[in-house]
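Cont'd.
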Amino acid sequence: MELQHLIAKFFTVGDSKLDPAQVVNLMHRWVAKQSMPEMLVDVAELLHVPKGPGVIAVGNDADYALDHTDGRWGVLYRRKSTLAGTNADRVVQALRSAAAAAQLIEDEFKGQITVSRHDFELIVNDRALAPNTPATFAAAKADLEAGVKAFLGHADFKLEAQGGDPRRRFAVSVKSAK
Amino acid sequence: MKASQDLWKKLLQGKIAEPLASEIDAFENEIELRKLGKIDEKVFAETRLRRGAYGQRYDNGQRHDGTESRKLPFADKPTKGPGTVWDAPGMLRIKVPFGGLNPAQIEVMAELADEYSDGIAHITTRQDFQLHFIHIENTPAIMRRLGAVGITSREACGNAVRNVTGCPYAGVCACETFDITPYARAAMLFLLGHPDAQEFGRKFKPAFSGCADQACGLAYMHDIGYIAATQQGARGFKVVVGGGLGAVPRQARVLSEFIPLEEFLPVTQAVCRIYARHGEKKNRNQARIKFLVDKWGIDKFREEVFAERAKLKPDPRWTEYLEAALKEGETALRPGADLPATPANASENLRHWLKSNVKPQRQKGYYTATVALPLGDITAEQLRQFADIARRYTKGTIRTTVEQNFILRWVSGADILAVYEALHAADLSGAGANNILDIVACPGTDTCKLGISSSRGLAGELRTRLATKSFQMDQAIQNLHIKISGCFNSCSQHGVADLGFYGSSRTVNGIKVPHFQVVVGGQWDNNGGAYGLPIVAVPTKRIPDAIERITGFYLQEKQKAENFHSFIKRVGKAPIRKLLDPLVENLPTPDVEPGLYTDWGDPRSYSIGDIGIGECSGEVVSRFQFESTAAERMVFEAGLYLEKGDAQQAGEQAYKAMLRGAKALVQMQYDDVGNDPAEIVAEFTERFHDSGLFADPSVGAAKFATYFFDAHAAAGTGKKFTADLAHQQITEAQLFIDAVHSCYNRLRSAAPAKA
C-alpha cells in the first residue's frame, strides 16, 4: 500500500489564549519570506466557518494551518504533491513539517499557545489510496508505526485507527506519554 | 498531481455517462499536450475555462507582500494560459443546474473539498459550487468523481453557456405560475456543448423564474431570462434578453411576451446562433449579448432571431429533453403536517430560525428550511452531515441559492424541530436567512485576480457586528439585502441589492486606501427589477459606519411600510451622499489610524499590485481553433493507442482526427455541416480540394488531401491495421492536419473577418 498526501496535526494543549486571527499576519510573513521548505503562495483565513480549517498558509506542494477541524485546534501540515521514499519516510516528513510549524507559532506567540508533540493525528488525504476501512489500517499500521517511532525516537506510544464514518478519510490517532 | 489520478480513472470506468466520460479523457489528453507545448496557450486557456478550471489570484507568479511585489518561486513550466503559471493554484467551478442537488452529490463535493481544496466548498451567486486552490493536473480526477454522480464543470467558465440558474423554490412556491425545474433541466441538457453555442465572444447566462414578482430567478439581469407565463391555459415563457450586471448593467428587454413550451428551445437556439454570428468578438468589453441588443435595438434583434428560428432544421431534442425532464419530479419522504407550536423553552436562535429560515410550501404540511452559510462556505464534514439530514427527513431534495445558501425542501412540519436540532448539531442552524445578516460576497481579494477590496473580509466583519443585534433591529432593517463585490464586475450582484458595495481604491494622504463604492437604489424583487447607482466611495474601514448612518436615516425618514427601494426613489441619493461625506473627508494619516490603510482580514499594507487579468471573459478562440485542437488531440490519442498495442484503434482514431480537421475547415464556410463522414468529405472536396483552396505546393497539401481521401475510402471496409499501418496512418493524419492549419492561415490572411 502506498501512503501519499499525508496530513499531520498536532493538537494544542489546554485553553489557548491566542486569537487565531493573529496567525494570519505570521503566515503572510511566511509567504513573503518563503520561510518553509515548500513554496507558499497565499494565506486563507476561514475563521468564519465553525469547526473549519482555520487559517491556512497555502502552497503548491504543501499547506500549513492553524486548524480547527472537528472542533479541536491544532497545527496542521498537509502534503499535496507526491513524495519519494517509503511510507514511513513520508510519515516522518509530515510529522517533522507540522512540528516545525508548531515551533514557529509557539515562538511567535510565547505563552499564548502550546502545541503537544505527543497527541496528534495522521490522515491519508486520498480515499482511493486509503479508504477508511479496517483493511487499510491492517495494511498501513506497520508503516505508520515505523514512521511515528522514527519521529518520536521511541516506541512507547499508542496508535489507533479513528474508524467511524467510512465517508471520512482514513486517519489514526497517536498518543505518547513522552 | 495526486498519486491516485489513474486509480480514479480505473475505479470509475463505466460509471460516467457519455459524452461526459470522453470529454474528460479528451481534457486529460489536452493537459498532456499543453505540457508538451503542443497546444497554443490561448487555446488551452479557453479549453480549460470551458471545463470550469479558472485562474486564481497570484497565478501570474507575482505577489505583493505589503512592501513590494515579489516573484513567487514557481517551477519553470509551460503556462496554463497567457501569463498564467502552470503550478499556481486555481479554482474549479462546478455547475449545479437550477441549484438542484442530491445527498450523493453533496458527499462527493465533501470528498473533493477534503482531498483537493482547503476543506471548504463555496456556493456562488449563480448556484454553482467552487473549489479553490486546485492544481490543474488534478482536475480530470475531480471531474470524473463529479461525473460519476452526474455533475459536470463543463462550460462553467469561458465564452459559453454558463450554469442555467432557477428559482430554488420552483415546484413548491405558492406564487409561481408553474414549476420551471423541468424546463431549466431541459435547457441545460440541450445547450451543454451545443455546436451553436460554441463561438460566443463572451459568456452567456440563462435564468428561469416561476413568477414575475419575486426576486428568486433574477431573470432581468441575465443574458436570457425565462419567466413562466400562461396564455389561454397553455404554458410558456415570457423571454427577455440582453440583461446583465458587470461594469455596465442592463435590464433585459422583452424578446417575446409568450413563447409556448415547445418553442422555447428552438428560439433559444436561434438566439445563440444570432449572438454567435453577430456578437462582438474582438472587443471583449462590448461582447456580451446586451451590447448586440443595444446596437440593433430589440425590434431588429427579435426580427433576426425569429427569422433564424424559421430556418432551423427540426431537432428531436427540442421535445425529447422536455419529455424526459418532465418525468423527474420531487416528492416527500414523510407525511405532511402542520408546524408544531414553538416549545416554551425554545432558544432565541430557534425562534429566529423558525421566523427567517422556514417557509411554507404550496403543498400543505410541507416546508422549506434554508441553511444559511456564512459567506457561502461549508466544510466537508458539514456537507456530510447535511447529506445525512437530507436523507433522514426528505428524499434528498436540495437546492443551492443565489444567496449562497442551501434550501432543504419537502420537510414535513412534524419534522421541522428535529431538522433544526440536526442542523444545530452540525453548526448549520444559523438564523437570518434572506435578511440583513445573510450578506452575499464574491471571493474578492481572497482568491479573485480582479479583486480590488476585500469583499469577504468586509462581509465577515459586518456579519460579526450584526450577529448579536440583527434580530433586535426594526423589521424594515432586517429585510434589507447587502451584497458586496470586490470590484465593479458585480459578481455579488450588488446592483440589485438594497445596499450594494463594490471595491475601488483611492489615494489618501499619498497612500492607496481600500474603498467600497456605496450603491443604492437597486431592487431585488421583480426578478432584479432595478439597478442601483454608486453614490460615493467610502474607505472600507468606514463601511460599517456608513451602513449605520444609512439605515438610521431610513428608519427615521421612511413613511409607513415604505421599503428601502421606494424610500430611495422618493428621497433621492443626495441626502445619502450628504450623510456619507463626513466619512470620506479629512481622513487621518497612517500614524493616527494605521488600520485605515489596510483591508479587512489582511494585515499587509494595502496594494492594488496583485490585480491580474481576469478570465471571466475567456479567450476568444474561433471554432476552427477548437476543432483543429481537437483533431490534434485525436492524433495524439491515436499514438497512445498504438503505444498500448491497439493498432486497430490507433488507425481508426487517426482517420477520425483527419475528419475532425477537415470539418474544422468546412465550418469556416458552412456552419451547419454535420458529423456524417460522407458529408464532411463531400463538402471538403467541393469547397477546399476541387476549388483549389487547399492546394499549397510549399506544404504538399494536395498529397496530404489524398491521405485523407484514402483513409476515408478504407474506413468501414474492415481494414485491419497492423502496427506499421497504424503508424503510417497516424503520420499521414498529422501531415493532413498540418496542411489544414496552413490552409486556415492562408484563408485568414485573405479574409480575417470570417475566421
